[in-house]
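Posting here for the record, re: zinc ion.
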Amino acid sequence: MARQEENLISRNRTHNAETSWEVRKRTVWKNLWHQKVKAKLKHFMWKCLQNCLPTNEVIFKRIGHGEGRCSCCGEGMETIEHLLFFCVNAKDVWKLAPVRWDGLVDKQHNLWLWWEEATKSTSKDCGPERVSLTINLFWQIWKARNRIVFDNEFQNPPNIVSKAQVEWLEYEQARVEEIEQSATDNIREHQTRRQTARDDDVCLFTDAAISARMIRTGQGIVARKWNGMIMKAKAIVNQYKGEPMKEEALAIRNAMLMAEQVGWTKIKIHSDSKSVLDQIHRGNEYDVNIATILEDVQDLTTHFERYSFVFIPRTENEISHALAKFAVQLVDDIEWEQDFPVWLMDLVRKQMRVVALFCN
Ligand SMILES: [Zn+2]
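Prediction output follows.
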């Protein structure tokens, strides 16, 4: 019987208490079953919640073997909560991880209560991704612990985080295939409607995001065909305190570098930063903080057969905006040429449906 269950039932041994516990248990299980992670990870998470993984504490209590000390730090009792939250190793992982659960710190002493609270966020924006990535992080922390126990090999925290991120992305990508197919269908329908608008420009959408709290900046760059189809996307993260104008200028410059690298010769660069675009259009009197970047942008224009800089309002720049906000949470830059993340494709589909409506 799970520790949490024991606690709850021993507090009040009435039929009602047991029933409401059963209801909570069913809700948690149902929610877990709907998480977008491999079945293996669902079972792992359920075992964590039921406190039946063979942690040293569980082994010690069950068969009196060992002292129950943590295999990683040797300092605390190896409970599931210690392993996942309080161990020095886990703390380092959470410092580097692209997800934050700062609001739930007071629930860390009881994984069950923590989890119930965490999964409530599922209904909000980005909730499902946050939770599924978190399960992957728990899994990698547990696997790293096992490597110490069985192979005497220490996994460093950046490695643990990047493994969790990679596995999470791989799973997301597998789901994307199906969505991409329906996006392609949508594009075909869309194409027949606006054949005349066709040209060979690559449209680059750029945006920047800044997190003062995390001391990080993110840039989102999305390359799309004339028909809206995504060709490439890039999320760039920098670990410093950024300034909006400078980051917007850098995003434009990096979009051009990306285009040059791929070999696109006709580009249309979109940004929602009016002041940066005004300076580019003027071609002089640059703001001193971004002068070097904009000079570089002017230099880069000579590498293209055709180029233009276009201002778009934030509302039309939703996708690179979302990507920039995503980038802020990353440890390393990520670039996609296919198998785009599911949330990105969802935004594309949403936007294309709106465009399709206007074209009727
Ligand atoms: Zn420890």
